[in-house]
Amino acid sequence: MPRIMIVDDDPEIIDLTREILGDEGYTVIGAESGEECLKKLKEEPVDLILMDFFMPGMDGRTVIEKIRETPDLKDAKIAFFTSATFRKRGMEIMKELNIVDYITKSFDMDDFISRIKKITGK
Amino acid sequence: MIQEIKEKADANDIIGLVIPDIEYDETLVEAAGFLSENYNKILYISINKPYGKLTGKFKKNKINLNKFYFIDCITRTEKDVSSTENCFFASSPRALDEIQTSVLDALRKQEIDMALIDSPSSLLTYYEHADVLQFMHRLMTELIVSGCKGIFPFQKESAGSLKRGVEMFVDEVVFLE
Q: Which CATH number fits domain B29-151: 3.40.50.850, 1.10.3720.10, 3.20.20.70, 3.40.50.300?
């Protein structure tokens, strides 16, 4: 089954996502900061990265830009998973960064799982 | 330059402005003049410029002060002063909750149709990047909910990564050269 990395400074969100996606058979790897995400991605590849936006240190956009600059990771599937509301320019930036989806945290669980299945193809 | 701001402000709800550092203060005064001629009431949130200094500049440039409601976040850090009919003096730029409440209050009572925050990046002196980003995001959400437009200016050379973060919440960014 696909491996999914959830990047969020809130450990409760990581635990909750791990529980929800774990029940569907996914392997979920948590990272509590952009730095931890970049470090873990170098050690173990994943099929999808769910990225928060508001994080201390590097915000989600900065982390994604760093991922895209890394040759081995530049094609990684990334979706925003955030409470932030992005407007017109934000949507353009997501397109430029090849973001596959934008999931808000006040999510419907069935919709969330179905979107993850659609992205990962499993 | 001002024509470009006008066109983008008319076409969008929230815009970012990127202004060369050396022209920053002067451009904001020009922008205030344009806003006073094109909007009913402007909320001017000043993080780092005292109300007295701002209104002095506005008067010198013959800008109609009656078109503005100010939230001054800096004067009370230096002297005791009471809020007036057209200015709320927040206790400090550190008081984000108080600033946010005063913004909500102004939006509710003053029939504001345009807001300008001068300048978001100065909050980085007091808060971490993510906290300032979240504050800006809440502010923009409040403006949208209130049907008010917003302008978020940044210094080109010194605003750093904050302007790249805030770019995600705006409709368009105007780069002034």
A: 3.40.50.300
| Nearest chain B CA: its distance from A65 CA (Å) | 11
Q: Is the bond into B46 cis (omega within 30 degrees of 0)?
A: no
Predicted TM-score (pTM) of this structure: 0.91
Q: B132 to chain A nearest CA, in Å?
A: 10
| pLDDT of residue B160 exceeding 80 | no
- Whether residue B161 and residue A84 make contact (CB cut-off 8 A), yes or no, is no
Q: Tokens representing A56?
A: 């201390």
Taking an 8 Å cut-off on Cβ atoms, the answer to whether B130 and A86 are in contact is no
Q: What ipTM score was computed for the predicted complex, to two decimals?
A: 0.90
CB A89 within 8 A of CB B171: yes
Chain segment B109-131, per-residue pLDDT in tens: 999 999 999 989 999 999 999 99
Helices within B51-160 (DSSP H only)? 51-60, 96-109, 129-145
In angstroms, the Cα distances linking A78 to A68, A87, A118, B124 are: 10, 19, 13, 29
What's the average pLDDT block by block, 10 residues per block, for chain A (122 residues)? 96 96 96 97 95 95 96 94 96 98 88 92 83
Q: Tell me if residue B85 falls in helix, strand or coil.
A: coil
Token pair of B80, please?
């005791």
Task: Please give the single-letter amino acid code of residue B150.
Answer: G
Q: d(Cα B17, Cα B174) in Å, to the nearest integer?
A: 5
DSSP H or E run through B19? strand B14-19
Q: What is the Cβ-side half-sphere exposure of residue B34, based on CA atoms within 13 angstroms?
A: 19
Please state, as a whole number, how many other Cβ atoms lie within 10 Å of the Cβ of residue B163.
21
Q: Domain spans of chain B?
A: 29-151
- 3-class SS string, A46-111: CCEEEECCCCCCCCHHHHHHHHHHCCCCCCCCEEEEECCCCCHHHHHHHHHCCCCEEEECCCCHHH
